[in-house]
Amino acid sequence: VGNALAVSMDSTLSASQDGYSNLAQVVVGRTTTIEATLSITGGDSVTVNNWNFQITPDSYTLQSQASVGTVTSSSKPTWTVIFNQPGTYTVSISPSCSAATCNGDSLTLEAQNPPVLTVTTSSVTLNGGSSVVVSFTVKNTGEATAKGVTASITTPSGVSATPATQTVTESGLA
């Protein structure tokens, strides 16, 4: 008579926001997705009775939560939350399972106020037939890094633009 292998599940949490994943920093007021990656040994599936999902401190809004029931290693239990205040948050799960040992995980996230972008431009005087250089600066004065920033200039009617050199300096924009 052989020994039966005990079924167990390990969980690893990660956070994503605005298309960016595996984050340690998130922006206050934006939807954050918390996802558990599961690893099951000794069987194909586990029945989860309760995920025991928790965030401390309690300054967030839970928008949706993972379902309980049968999960496999390809399952991706997710919770969506909005952090309401800046600060350091601990996100944890401690799953309660039937006929299996289930191990949870925790994740520390830093919630920051959103980026605040300001744009300043050089003063330009247009004279017919002459060339001018237009420069502008985009500055982030907020706490969080601004991601995916695109800057462009729209020329006035009757003015044609020929791209020249571009100088890009990043500072807190990402």
Oligomeric status of the shown chains? single chain
Name the structural class: mainly beta
Per the principal axes of the C-alpha atoms, what is the gross shape? elongated
Radius of gyration: 25 Å
Encode the helix/strand succession as letters. EEEEEEEEEEEEEE
Spatial strand arrangement across the major sheet: 6-8-3-1-11
Total of helices: 0
What is the distance, rounded to the nearest whole angstrom, between the alpha carbons of the first and last residues? Answer: 60 Å
**Helical content class:** under 10%
Mean pLDDT: 87
Beta-strand residue percentage:
35-45%
Instruction: Please mark out the parts with pLDDT under 50 across 5 or more consecutive residues, or reply none.
Output: none
What does this structure look like?
By secondary structure, this protein is an all-beta fold. 0% of the residues lie in helices and 45% in strands. It has no helices and 14 strands. The protein has strands at residues 8-16, 25-27, 31-41, 45-50, 54-56, 60-64, 69-72, 78-83, 87-93, 96-98, 101-103, 105-112, 117-121, 136-140. The strands form 4 sheets. It has a 5-stranded mixed sheet with strand order 6-8-3-1-11, with no helix packed on it. It is elongated and about 85 Å long. The protein starts with 7 loop residues before the first strand and ends in a 34-residue tail after the last strand. The model has no long low-confidence stretch (mean pLDDT 87).
Task: Give descriptors for this structure.
174 residues, five-stranded mixed sheet, mainly beta, elongated, single chain, four-stranded mixed sheet, 45% strand, 0% helix
